[in-house]
Amino acid sequence: MTIIKAQKGTKDILPADMPVWHFMEEKANEVFSKYGAKEIRTPIFEATELFARGVGDTTYIVNKEMYTFEKSERSLTLRPENTAGVVRSFIENGMHRLSMPVKLWYKGPMFRYERPQAGRQRQFHQVGVEVFGIKQPAADAEVILMAVNYLKALGLNDLSVELNSLGCPKCRDNFKNSLKQVLKPYLGELCEDCQTRYEKNPLRLLDCKVPECQEIFAKPEVRNVIFSDFICEECAEHFNALKSYLDELKITYSVNKLLVRGLDYYNRTVFEIKSNNLGSQNAVCGGGRYDSLVKNLGGEDIPAIGFAMGMERLASLIGKIEETKTTAFVVSNNSAEAIKLSEELRNNGISCEFDFSNKKFVKQIEKASKTAKYAIILGEDELKTGKITIKNLETSEQKTISKDLLLSELK
Q1: Distance between CA atoms of residues 140 and 267, nearest Å
Q2: Which fold does the domain 326-410 belong to in CATH?
Q3: What is the pLDDT at residue 273?
Q4: Which pLDDT score is estimated for 188?
Q5: How far apart (Å, rounded) are the C-alpha atoms in residues 406 and 387?
Q6: Residues 118, 96: Cα–Cα separation, whole Å
Q7: CA-CA to 6 of 20 to 30 Å: which in 166, 247, 292, 317?
Q8: Residue-wise over 219-245: b if at least 16 C-beta within 10 A, else e?
């Protein structure tokens, strides 16, 4: 019979891998809670319209990468990202009535039909933060600080922060028009995707990685437009204030005028955090401000900013974390007594296993040495005397004690 394998672009997270995943999740709760962020868990699938309106119907994600299916004449989509879902929940559950800011964090699987690559699968995982209700640049600075401190808590220090400002809709429209004008002579030389973006969302032209398009963007007249100070005075004040906050916080950053992010909802501040220990796909965090998204999805006019990180990439940087060994392993040929003692230890908060097969003691101790810190030997002599032999499997030290002292000895 043919073996059924995991689908392309999906991976099992095996027990040996779980320590690093638990580490990432525990650090997320630890770090984000310090900033007052509360965890939220949204459904894995949502109405397709949520992503078309939220992420943007001109984006590559919505046009080519979403897992969409019909059920009872409704179009549903596995979430390709989680900001839109968190915003939907924020609106639906009346969180706009809470005291601002509302800070939420999440973790979980996302789904995009794309070519699998290092650190990115068709089912991948993200951890992220969304902060609602504050338009001032201090919120931008805190969100970036939160991301940096989370990465540092994971032990990742070789990082670089890149910033840009996309401006507000008004000043961004002026930039889009200038960009279209300077690129018009080269329109036929742009890739097919960029030709579509030229009409629907010219700002995302700068996100293209096709070498031929990059060459066009490097032309002097095009670079003059890209690197112009197109943002209005109010947006410039916001961006300068953010940079001032980051300077005060001793966060090193650089301004990257080509940084636009891949989703339509961003405005003003956008940022990426990169790891110098990865190759060309070196971004570990991306985020920015999306002040109009809550309103666009039917809510109040509430500003917001957030970020997301790919957990597979983080795991590759953290490396392997050794599994925590079981505290005790009961070595015995009396299954009834072994299971009874094991359960007594578990009920007192001590992890414990025993051998179901009644193998020879040598084999049981050999197995115990691989999985546990202590071997609790319960042989015929121990059963007769009411005593227990405890062996430290790391030092090989062994002693026989009263059963009443076992708990205190292990703890």
Answers
A1: 12
A2: Rossmann fold (3.40.50)
A3: 94
A4: 80
A5: 9
A6: 39
A7: 317
A8: eeebeebbeeebbeeebeebbeebbeb
The H-assigned helical ranges of 185-289 are: 192-200, 211-217, 220-226, 233-248
Q: Where are the domains of the chain?
A: 18-168+231-318, 326-410
Rounded CA-CA distance 209/374 in Å is 55
Residue range 18-168+231-318 in CATH 1.10.600.10 = no
Q: Edge-to-edge, what's the strand order for the sheet holding 387-392?
A: 352-354, 326-331, 372-377, 387-392, 398-402
Other beta carbons within 10 Å of 153: 16
Q: Which residues of the chain have pLDDT under 50?
A: none
CA distances from 389 to 38, 188, 345, 348, 353 (A): 47, 81, 15, 19, 16
The predicted-structure confidence for 24-51, as pLDDT tens digits, reads as follows: 999 999 999 999 999 999 999 999 888 8
Instruction: Calculate helix-pair angle for 233-248, 137-153, nearest 10 degrees.
Output: 40
Which residue in this structure is represented by tokens 């109010």? Answer: 234
List of residues 6+ apart from 5 with CB closer than 8 A: none
Helical spans, DSSP H, in 93-187: 137-153, 169-183
Burial class (CB in 10 A: 0-12, 13-18, 19+), 201: middle
pLDDT for the residue numbered 71: 85
Q: What is the pLDDT of residue 351?
A: 92
Q: Could you tell me the sign of the dihedral formed by the alpha carbons of 275, 280, 283, 288, in that order? A: positive
Q: Is the dihedral of CA 64, 113, 52, 312 positive or negative?
A: negative
Q: Rounded to an integer, what distance in angstroms lies between the CA atom of residue 257 and that of residue 207?
A: 11
Token pair for residue 24? 């990432």
Q: Specify burial of residue 314 (Cβ count, 10 A radius: 0-12, 13-18, 19+).
A: buried
Number of CB atoms found within 10 A of residue 155's CB: 11
Contact 122, 113 (CB under 8 A): yes
